[in-house]
Write a structure and sequence with these properties.
By secondary structure, the protein is mainly α. It contains 3 helices and no strands.
Length: 104
């Protein structure tokens, strides 16, 4: 009987702390954007920056804390497809209710 070895890669505790600090910094930027928007009224630029930051944080959490970056590429593709599908559905619903106005 052969023994199957599982070689899984997990971040070290030091890497987890670095990732947590990065996520805290991104959250601080999001909070700062809220206050900056209150003073400067950035409008669509503020929304775009916040959405990009949220997507970046989502990717970091899924990749590192949920260990998706260490899984098979098939699982990553499946998860990415679901994420893109959810974002597309979200944009369609926002556009339907007039929150997103695509004007030429």
């Amino acid at each position: 009987m052969t023994e199957v070895q599982h070689t899984t890669h997990h971040p070290s505790p030091k890497q987890y702390v670095r990732i947590a600090i990065l996520l805290a910094a991104l959250t601080a930027i999001e909070v700062a954007m809220f206050y900056i928007n209150g003073k400067l009224h950035l409008g669509l630029l503020n929304a775009a920056v916040l959405l990009v930051l949220a997507a970046l944080k989502f990717t970091i959490v899924v990749g590192w804390y949920m260990h998706l970056r260490f899984e098979k590429s098939t699982l990553s593709r499946f998860f990415t497809f679901g994420f893109v599908l959810a974002c597309t559905l979200y944009a369609i619903v926002l556009a339907t209710f007039g929150v997103l106005a695509f004007e030429a």
